[in-house]
């Protein structure tokens, strides 16, 4: 795979620096990193005894949960839209 159109962006997430490479804009990569950092801090404040690995897994579980809920909502809206078009 070629690195054409790839952006390398340095971000901080939960006190750690990461270099993220992706085709999205630098501002998008920073927004994603900021949202991950915010979620990790939110979960950590509610569960201060969690180590970083468990905190990262819970953050990933939360993110995938949110994604699946939004995907279900989108599918329902697409069904409603199809009914209206028919």
Overview of the structural elements:
InterPro entries: Bac_CellDiv_Activator (IPR053712), Cell_div_ZapA-like (IPR007838), Cell_div_ZapA-like_sf (IPR036192), Cell_div_ZapA_firmicutes (IPR023688). It is found in: Cytoplasm. A two-stranded antiparallel sheet has the order 1-2. A hairpin with a 2-residue loop joins strand 1 and strand 2 (16-22). The chain has one domain. The chain has helices at 26-46, 52-85, and strands at 7-13, 16-22. With 86 residues, it is an alpha+beta fold. The longest helix has 34 residues, at 52-85. Helix 1 packs across helix 2 (52-85).
Name the quaternary structure.
Answer: single chain
* Average pLDDT number: 95
Q: Count of DSSP helices?
A: 2
The total count of strands amounts to: 2
The best one-word shape is flat
Taking pLDDT < 50 over at least 5 consecutive residues as the criterion, the unreliable ranges are none
Strand content: 15-25%
Write down the domain tally. Answer: 1
User: What is the gyration radius calculated from CA atoms?
Assistant: 17 Å
């Amino acid at each position: 795979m070629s690195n054409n159109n790839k952006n390398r962006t340095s971000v901080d997430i939960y006190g750690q620096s990461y270099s993220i490479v992706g085709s999205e804009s630098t501002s998008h990569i920073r927004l994603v990193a900021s949202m991950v950092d915010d979620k990790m801090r939110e979960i950590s404040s509610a569960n201060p005894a969690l180590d970083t690995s468990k905190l990262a897994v819970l953050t990933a579980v939360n993110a995938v949960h949110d994604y699946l809920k939004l995907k279900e909502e989108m599918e329902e809206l697409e069904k409603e839209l199809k009914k209206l078009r028919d």
